[in-house]
From TrEMBL:
This is Uncharacterized protein. Residues 30-51 are annotated as: Disordered. It comes from the Eukaryota. Residues 30-49 have a biased composition (Polar residues).
Length: 81
């Protein structure tokens, strides 16, 4: 069975971060929308995404990096953090 996120195949993208995930998961927190499968605006506000909380791996750790790798080439227009 394929994992789905808002109707999107989660196996088509891979999240990674250099900080430890303290709560939540990227697959439950990230929403993807494309012209092929837009998010339904009527249902988008009815369900809140699970918060993703990251914490540094050590006190002198560098800035948080969140990387999302797609299995196909995509043009990313907007990113909200």
């Amino acid at each position: 069975m394929e994992a789905l996120n808002n109707g999107h195949d989660c196996s088509s993208w891979i999240p990674a971060t250099n900080w430890t995930i303290a709560h939540g998961s990227p697959s439950a927190s990230v929403a993807l929308e494309s012209s092929d499968s837009p998010i339904d605006s009527e249902n988008a506000t009815s369900t809140m995404k699970t918060p993703l909380i990251l914490k540094p791996t050590s006190p002198d750790c560098g800035p948080c990096e969140i990387k999302i790798s797609f299995t196909q080439k995509h043009e990313v227009c907007q990113v909200y953090v």
